[in-house]
Amino acid sequence: DDVQSRVRTISTLSVLLQGPFDTGNAILGSQNLVDLMIQMAGSCDPLQERIAVEAIVLSASKKDKAAGILSLGSEILKDLYQSANEQIKVIALVGLSKIASSKGTDSAANLVTEGSCQTLSRACCKFLTTSPNFEIRRWSADGLAYLSLDADVKEELVDNILAIKSLFNLCQCEDAHVLYSITTIFVNLTNTYDTKKADKEMADLATYAKQHVPKEHPKDDTESYEERRRKLVDAGIISVLVQLCKHKSDNCREQVAR
How far apart are CA 207 and CA 201, in angstroms? Predict the structure, then answer.
């Protein structure tokens, strides 16, 4: 019940979830720390809230875990998004972005209310373009990395030159986590991620069995993503990608290559 011990425990967990996440996830599951994180997030103590909300967001790194953890913490995240503390507010925004984007590129999955991804994306862009604080802007980019799987967000973001230029400026940092988020946004905007074409027979069988069948968004067709690519080239992405090639992170360089 000691606050300092809680803060140290959850801070350590956050560090593990950013590197050896298998270890972090094992500890998270075995020690039942999700309840503690949610309890801390609702404590009205800014320090406990910030530590806990960061751990909640980081623990939802994979889709299967994101659904469970974020569904438990979604109400807390909504409350913390109203916080007067910008750091807490933006991290809660990333958590809400993870919930909204967990449908991936499937336009048939209606996990959130219509337009929610776009609403969250606009909030991320506002932080990204107006905050002088690097940490606030890096979390904003993290949120956009998830939200930019949504085709409506892609179309809106690629026309937001101020946000695109802000992402280009963030590329000057050396933080591999930040650069991975930004290059993920570029991969999503250009539709250069791996896509698995659904087998027609399996899709027909799923429809007959009244199972969910993923659908591609109309704005993810060839004409749409080629136009987005053209806009990014016009905005100056080529020189940014060339600069990013020099980074030591293999993950970032793979994204750049795409």
Answer: 10
